[in-house]
Amino acid sequence: MENFKAYWQFVKPYRALILLTIAVGIVKFGIPLTLPLIMKYVVDDLLLGDLTVAEKTEKLAYTLAGALVLFVIVRWPVEYYRQYFAQLTTSKILFDMRKKLYDHIQKLSIRYYQNRKAGEIISRFINDVESTSSLVETGLMNIWLDLFTLSLAIGVMFYLNPVLTLISLCVFPFYGIASKILYKRLRELSRSRSQALAEIQGYLHERIQGIPVIRSFTLERYEREQFGGKNQKYLQRALALTRWNALTFAIINTLTDIAPLLVIGYGGYEVIRGELSPGSFVAFFGYLDRIYNPLRRLVTSSTTLVQAVASLDRVLEFMREPYEIVDAPHAVELKSSSGRIDFENVWFRYNDQGDWVLKNINLTIHPGQTVALVGMSGGGKSSLISLIPRFYDIQRGAIRIDGQNIRDVTQNSLRSRIGMVLQDSFLFSGTVRENIMLGRPGASEEEMIRAAIAANAHEFILGLPKGYDTEIGERDVKLSGGQKQRIAIARVFLKNPDILILDEATSALDLESEQLIQKSLDLLVRNRTTLIVAHRLSTITHADQIVVIEEGEVKEKGTHQELMMKDGIYAKLFNVQHLQEKSTV
Description:
Elements: H1 2-11, H2 15-30, H3 35-47, H4 53-107, H5 110-114, H6 118-131, H7 133-160, H8 162-168, H9 172-209, H10 211-216, H11 220-273, H12 278-319, E1 341-348, E2 358-365, E3 370-374, H13 381-387, E4 396-401, E5 404-405, H14 411-415, E6 418-422, H15 432-437, H16 445-454, H17 458-462, H18 481-495, E7 499-503, H19 511-524, E8 529-533, E9 545-550, E10 553-558, H20 560-566, H21 569-584
Parallel strand pairs: 3-8, 3-9, 6-7, 7-8
Antiparallel strand pairs: 1-2, 1-4, 4-5, 9-10
């Protein structure tokens, strides 16, 4: 019931359209209900009546003319608008659901995506949302129309012959019993199959991204076996649902076929006795088809709805996933930032049961300073910088920007003042221009080009087949790691943030690319508070402050000269790297 209340919020804006569709549908389904009455009139009043041949022919012609008007001229637009309004309503509701879901996934934490397969999320977003369409078209429209048809037909049948009507309806209670027993299990099997399909999509998404690894380790046969197992699991669940569906239809259709036999037997007996006219018997049998066709549709609709409800459960379960990072009720906009950052007794871990990743961090970064974070891998450097834009929240202490606790300002205002260049900067499909413009979507063409020039990207972009309009990845247009990084840096230049975070931005590049990008970065860090996570220590000797982090704690702080004179952890790391670089040369 709670899920239907949640779903009703999507349906509610379109109540008028749904009612209009039902009204048109009533006319559509009502027109065929006149056919048995026309047959009764033709049989009793024309074929078996006392009129002359000429009179019968004339009346038959008038009857056919009226039927043609009703079934052709009137029914055509009614059929069209019934289908159009039904699809329009369904499409609008699905549009709203996907819009809401997309807003939702924008707010979920990075931790959520780290713990979920992208393919499973996409499956809920696409497949399960699409499956819920039956809830509107079938559940809110067709079922009511079938119930209307059923009620009207039964009413006319009672008028024709109450006893025969009761005989034809004697199997109805068995429908209710069968439905109660069968559909609960059907919902479970539908949900199980949807989950198996989501697992396949999640697996495929990962493997397609990891094709180079599969090829390099010659894992093709192993991966075929792994996929075969997941595919077999889906097949088993799909077949279980198919078997149950088949059982459902077999039982329902068997029950449906009992009623006509009873009607033929009792109705034929009544005609023989002269208690029922042949026309009434023909009409009654016609209405029998009119009540069991809607009944069959109701059974089919029930099966469809059970599967749709299973999909709705999965969609709403995803939609109710709580947000880990939220704005405080009293959150305000981050005031104009000069770039001072204070870490005050900061403790952080990724989950409540895990070990502390950062322990009692106290660090002050002054406006315009360049601060380098160094240390062995796994020491907590990347975790520390991910706390500044609130990708994660700390468990103890406080992080302040210009004296404002970042938990007391809105996420949007906080992140709008921070620019990040990562080791593997992600470029979206689309043109080079579109990727740079993500830095500030409202920027002008001139501003975008200036940002590309500052990032040393303008020259190589002009050399691409269509310059800034070149589609990334299209027709073998493959960018090198250095070119991708320069486009990412251009994006940050265009954003023009107060605080800059560089997370090993050059560590994966060749020396030539690194030199070009280092020039861009030297220009980018001017007059900005900058944090650099560096692997190659020779690139950060100019930093105003170098912070050594090991095992989640600040072990040393100072300039390059101060730390070298101290001859501690930093000096040892630097000397080892210097010797390695000298040996390589």
